[in-house]
Specification:
The chain is α+β, with helices and mostly antiparallel strands and about 210 residues long. The chain contains seven helices and seven strands; from the N terminus they run βααααββαβαβαββ. Strand 6 and strand 7 form a beta hairpin.
Length: about 210
């Protein structure tokens, strides 16, 4: 899976050290370890970043080709530069209990056929180079190949000329999803847009006609 000069691989095919290089030694990604949607509020408060890192390591199965994994890692010229989480929506207890993603939608929250791109992280020094867009495109293939019926994200709608903190963009900007073929299906708040792509199922071949006689 590739982007504009960017190679994307499932996280289980990459070393754990590469994933941690993307998250860095401080900041929101380092502290969160992609556990925000995994943990309910009380659970979040009771964990340290070391706890969260241990959880992520088990979820990503870094360095274990063939194992299940929960995300993708992007490389530029062989250097790890980005991460995105992608797995069934039911894997995110906090998300299932939130109000915003569901406003105005008649959705079965327990439908495991719907997958989610919940989080992006781009390594400091490599932003604005198409890393998130490459990851979003790769996430589409990743989810579809593993049996997802749909894939959705909860994009931030940015305004021209308005500064956006990098911490806000961990969910991805609208343009990131549009470039990967997602379309808007709901707008629960003025700045939050539910973007979704539905995968068409191939029509099964018709059975052969009965033999004469």
């Amino acid at each position: 899976m590739t982007g504009p000069g960017i190679d994307v691989v499932p996280a289980n095919e990459a070393p754990w050290e590469d994933l941690q290089a993307v998250f860095g030694q401080r900041g929101l990604a380092h502290d969160c370890q992609c556990q925000w949607f995994k943990l309910r509020p009380a659970e979040w408060k009771s964990t340290t970043w070391e706890d969260r890192a241990a959880s992520l390591r088990g979820q990503a199965n870094s360095g274990t080709p063939g194992a299940q994994t929960t995300g993708l890692l992007a490389y530029l010229a062989g250097e790890p530069v980005g991460w995105c989480a992608v797995e069934p929506r039911t894997a995110y207890p906090r998300l299932l209990g939130m109000r915003v993603p569901w406003a105005g939608r008649d959705e079965d929250r327990d439908d495991a056929g719907v997958w989610t791109v919940s989080c992006f992280a781009t390594r400091a020094g490599h932003r604005r180079r198409g890393v998130s867009r490459a990851l979003a495109r790769a996430a589409v293939d990743f989810a579809r190949e593993r049996g997802a019926r749909s894939l959705e994200g909860y994009a931030l709608e940015t305004e021209p000329g308005r500064e956006v903190a990098w911490g806000e963009l961990y969910v991805g900007g609208r343009g990131v999803f549009e470039a990967a073929g997602f379309r808007e299906v709901a707008r629960p708040t003025p700045r939050r847009v539910v973007m979704r792509i539905d995968f068409a199922r191939a029509t099964p071949p018709a059975p052969p006609p009965p033999s004469p006689g």
